[in-house]
TrEMBL record:
Signal peptide: none annotated. InterPro entries: Glyco_trans_2-like, Nucleotide-diphossugar_trans. Keywords: Glycosyltransferase, Transferase. The keyword Glycosyltransferase applies. It comes from Pseudocitrobacter cyperus. Its EC number is 2.4.-.-. It comes from the Bacteria. This is Glycosyltransferase family 2 protein. Residues 8-135 form the Glycosyltransferase 2-like domain.
Length: 253
């Protein structure tokens, strides 16, 4: 029986006391137990930090870091990546959750196929923890496809540092995850999907992702300001993004 490689789980937190217990409990409940959770708190003003310290005292696999000033989710994630010791880097935000067999299934999928970056299907949940529709991404995606639609849910993604090295998120306030996947897809041909629902994305709460207009504005800004695309090129990819986003968020299986 081969040894299970260590998985480093990257979690940013900011005023997350209402949801972070469920997020961390879903990690502790994993059937795959060789993990470390690295939570970087982005200067929370509620009791998030005290909750985190309690978890760290109960489980030595949980490590807590605190930023000196609020820098955004990308900065917090990068701090955790810097301190990560695992072969695999996985992501879970402090308001999302995992299926108990998420790591077990996905790491096997990666090891068996020697995949460098993978993602899974996921299901939406509302603020009252009611299950909503499921999102089933395409079975693979490449750089040009991802530009048209960020099909890789951050809460589902895992990459292999043995194949890629450590890769950090660009320090931008929005769309850091999409920027990271693009950096990785510059090095490999495809990211691959394990098409099982293995994560739960919380919507309808107070966050950037709960405001569709903000999403559209940030996506346009991503093309124009981060990627430095021309007006025509930005409009080309943004048109695909609009159509695919509508289909994705209005499709229930």
């Amino acid at each position: 029986m081969r040894l299970r490689p260590l998985v480093s789980i990257i979690m940013p937190s900011y005023n997350s006391s209402k949801t972070i217990r469920r997020s961390i409990d879903s990690i502790i409940a994993q059937s795959y137990d060789n993990w470390e959770l690295l939570v970087t708190d982005d200067k929370s003003s509620d009791d998030t930090l005290s909750l985190l310290k309690n978890y760290a005292e109960m489980d030595e696999r949980i490590k807590v870091f605190v930023l000196n000033e609020n820098g955004g989710a990308g900065v917090a994630r990068n701090n955790s990546i810097y301190h990560a010791s695992g072969r695999y880097i996985a992501f879970l935000d402090s308001d999302d959750e995992w299926h108990p067999k998420k790591l077990q299934k996905q790491i096997k999928f990666m090891l068996d196929n020697k995949y460098a970056l993978t993602y899974t299907a996921y299901r939406k949940i509302d603020g009252n923890n009611n299950l909503k529709g499921s999102i089933y991404p395409p079975m693979r995606t490449c750089y040009s496809d991802l530009l048209k639609s960020n099909v890789i849910g951050c809460l589902t993604a895992i990459y292999d540092t043995e194949l890629l090295g450590k890769i950090y998120m660009p320090v931008i306030r929005k769309r850091q995850d999409m920027a990271l996947w693009l950096l990785i897809l510059e090095k490999i041909d495809y990211a691959w999907c394990l098409n099982d629902v293995l994560a739960y994305y919380r919507e309808g709460h107070e966050s950037l992702s709960s405001n569709k207009l903000k999403i559209l504005k940030s996506q346009w800004g991503f093309y124009r300001d981060y990627l430095k695309y021309s007006l025509f090129k930005s409009a080309y990819y943004f048109s695909f993004y609009l159509v695919k986003a509508y289909k994705k968020h209005n499709k229930t299986k």
